[in-house]
Write a structure and sequence with these properties.
This protein is about 35% helix and about 15% strand. By secondary structure, it is an alpha/beta fold. The chain has two domains: about 120 residues, Alpha-Beta Complex (Aspartate Aminotransferase, domain 1); about 220 residues, Aspartate Aminotransferase, domain 2, CATH 3.40.640.10. The strands form four sheets. The chain has a seven-stranded mixed β-sheet, sandwiched between helices. A four-stranded antiparallel β-sheet has the order 11-12-15-14, covered by helices on one side. A two-stranded antiparallel sheet has the order 1-2. Helix 4 crosses helix 11, helix 5 runs parallel beside helix 11 and helix 12 runs parallel beside helix 14. It starts with 19 loop residues before the first strand and ends with a helix. Bound molecules: pyridoxal-5'-phosphate. The site of pyridoxal-5'-phosphate (PLP) has 13 residues, from helix 6.
Length: about 400
């Protein structure tokens, strides 16, 4: 490499080298100076630790780990999806960049043309793609915390400017404040409905009110299948600025395979097709998603089991005077811990191999979020809380 820095004549006069030569004589460039300025300030996304690593860290056998911190589906995926993955023989062939089979199957499932559907590597893929499509340096993106952490993360990565409009204390949207914050630079508004971590949905009138502002409105319906059924999908054909995100991660138990999709006006779908990575849905993901859509009876039964368990867990948590339990239309429940012992609860459960989410930030001070598991998981949590309450005199 250093040779290239010599003048063509080969004479000894060297151009000034900007980097340094280290002790072994290797050329070290100042790559830090080359990193995009907008990337430098980004704090790493707080990752969820996988079960094997939790088991190792806490000295618990991995089969004993109860992971209730990622809103995953503890019933797992459809048995048909597992079989389809085992039987598939074409893993050596690249996937279809136009995702024809999956978009056709989704078209039947959702009841909307395949031209309005684009699939990706989880709905996270489309959070990123929306921002790449619409946001230029210093354009503004509105997010309403407390909410899903990927909106601020991807906004920062894409060079947008994040405008946070806090939710009200009961986690409903502050529509007046959102409208007031909208200006010429606003490009995208993210709304999760049901919202993570609060579990509440955005009323339709509020979605309509925001659509009329003429900015790109992303309604993230990752948990819609666990809700009472409200959805913004039908509005896609009426509003050219609406994008609805859905995923197979939660209801279909395919979080590890990464399949999500965007429902949007045809024009936006065409842009997504142009800018997405050609193979953003791998063949395993495609095979499993297709098999899931062919096994709706089974998957609907696991959704029903989770909704029922949400009710049972919620009722039991409500009996604990030290908790304020928020109603949820998703596969998790948020609680405020009123005696300031949220961290103790989180750590105590962790020692027993039960992993929940703990929040201690200005908007969620002393909160916990518990993903809904199977009945036995509810029982273990409730017993552990009772033991703690007895020991602590709560
Ligand atoms: C609101 C919301 N949107 C999207 C996602 C990500 O979904 P996916 O696994 O499809 O990327 C999550 C995951 O927790 C979420 O809570």
């Amino acid at each position: 490499m250093l040779m290239l820095l010599l003048p063509k004549s080969g004479k000894s006069k060297r151009r000034k080298v900007k980097g340094k030569v280290n002790i072994s004589g290797d050329y070290m460039s100042n790559t830090e100076d080359l990193v995009s300025r907008h990337i430098k300030g980004i704090a790493p996304y707080e990752p969820i630790v996988p079960p094997e690593e939790l088991a190792r860290r806490f000295g618990i056998p991995s089969e004993k780990i109860i992971k209730l911190n990622g809103n995953e589906n503890l019933y797992g995926c459809s048995p048909r999806a597992k079989k389809a993955l085992a039987d598939y023989s074409q893993y050596h062939i690249y996937p279809d960049p136009e995702q024809r089979k999956l978009r056709e199957a989704l078209s039947k499932y959702i009841g909307i043309d395949m031209e309005n559907i684009m699939v990706g590597s989880g709905s996270d893929d489309y959070i990123d793609l929306v921002l790449r499509l619409f946001v230029e340096a210093d354009d503004e993106v509105i997010s309403c915390p407390p909410t899903f952490g990927m909106y601020p993360f991807s906004t920062a990565v894409c060079g947008g400017r994040l405008v946070e409009i806090n939710r009200h204390e009961d986690f409903t949207l502050d529509i007046a404040a959102i409208k007031q914050a909208i200006n010429k630079r606003t490009k995208v508004i993210f709304l999760a409905s049901p919202n993570n971590p609060s579990g509440n949905t955005a009323p339709r009138e509020e979605i309509l009110e925001l659509l009329k502002e003429g900015k790109i409105l992303v309604v993230d319906e990752a948990y819609q299948e666990f809700s009472s059924g409200a959805s913004a999908i039908d509005l896609i054909l009426r509003y050219d600025n609406l994008i609805v995100l859905r995923t197979f991660s939660k209801w279909a138990g395919l979080a590890g395979l990464r399949v999500g999709y965007a429902l949007c006006p045809v024009r936006i779908a065409q842009y997504f097709m142009r800018i997405k990575q050609p193979y953003n849905v791998n063949v395993a993901a495609e095979v499993a998603a297709l098999a899931s859509l062919a096994d709706l009876t089974y998957l609907k039964s696991t959704i029903a089991a989770i909704i029922q368990e949400r009710g049972r867990l919620s009722d039991k948590l409500k009996k604990k005077s030290f908790l304020k339990v928020y109603p949820s239309e998703a596969n998790f429940i948020l609680c405020a811990v009123l005696n300031g012992k949220a961290k103790d609860i989180y750590q105590n459960l962790q020692r027993k191999g039960i992993f929940i989410r703990y929040y201690n930030n200005p908007l969620l001070k002393d909160y916990i979020r518990i993903s809904i598991g199977k009945p036995e998981h509810t029982d273990v949590i409730i017993t552990a809380l009772e033991e703690m309450a007895n020991a602590g005199g709560w």
